[in-house]
Amino acid sequence: MKSYLPVLLPLLSGLVLFLFALNYLSEGLKAISGDRLKEWLGRFTRNVVTGILTGVAITTLLDSSSAVIIMTIALVNTRALSFRQALGVVLGANIGTTFSSQLIAFDIGQWAGLPMAVGLGLMLLSQRDWVSQSGQVLLGLGMLFLGLFLMEEAVEPLKHMPTVKTWMQGLDSAWWGALIGAGVTVLLQSSSATVGMAVILEGQQLLTLPAGIALMMGAELGTCADTLVASIGRSRAALRTGLFHLTFNLFSIVLGLLLIKPFTALVQTLSAGAPAGRQLANAHVFFNVIGVVLIVGFVPFIATRLEQWLPDNHSEKPQPVAN
């Protein structure tokens, strides 16, 4: 066990910093945007396509699909957003979350001090709220990069540990890898952290691309836990929104695991010449975009079935206005 402590302790430090930075960055972006995010969700979700685009934009901005979907569920619960309006946002959030994996694939950890220094300076020297909030975003971004850098440096010695390499090879079993990815995501409460670690491990050649893809798919399932919990005790429409998220992710994951070999070949072809970590980040994008494209035409059908299976309570239905 002692031989692993020099790896585990820095890895834990980097992971904690990464998770804190994600939350800190998200809070800073929320502070800058204020109530405009809710306005955008209500205004630009008139149909599935605009809902998807809105979900992509807001999730990319907040760097958290769970936060966007939970916010959407809350809006559906208060009837500020209809159940059908919310479905496009859920699909778009799954695409928007891939922005973080693309960012992680860049080797920019060594530059973490620059946005941290600028951000801290803005927070300390400016009296204006929006400048201070912008500083918080930069500081959070820098801490995110630093956390990734610490994790990347920490796992490098694992390449020379036979026990670790043997365990990592076991993740080549797609279903087992997906189960591990889902479990880690539920534990960390962040699919971005799970995918980020997978990108780092693949970049260090500790993971094969198929194993990384399986972990990534599992992370997509694990992130449903937050949204399902957020749906409990809410209206039937809000609960249907959480169930739609689960249904979509399960469909994509099962199909992806069944077709993992041709999907891996597709990723390798489209990412020819790209570094290992970048290939997994690209796989994350391809997986979610393909899933949305395959299911978007069936959204009205799925929505109708969910409404039939879980209809609104009488108290939740709009009451006729008396003359």
Automatic annotation (TrEMBL):
It is a multi-pass membrane protein. It comes from the Bacteria. Keywords: Cell membrane, Membrane, Transmembrane, Transmembrane helix. It is found in: Cell membrane. The chain crosses the membrane at residues 52-76, 108-125, 137-155, 175-201, 243-263, 283-303. PANTHER family: SODIUM-DEPENDENT PHOSPHATE TRANSPORT PROTEIN 2B (PTHR10010:SF46), SOLUTE CARRIER FAMILY 34 SODIUM PHOSPHATE , MEMBER 2-RELATED (PTHR10010). NCBIfam families: Na_Pi_symport. This is Phosphate:Na+ symporter. It comes from Spirosoma utsteinense. The lineage of its organism: Bacteria, Pseudomonadati, Bacteroidota, Cytophagia, Cytophagales.
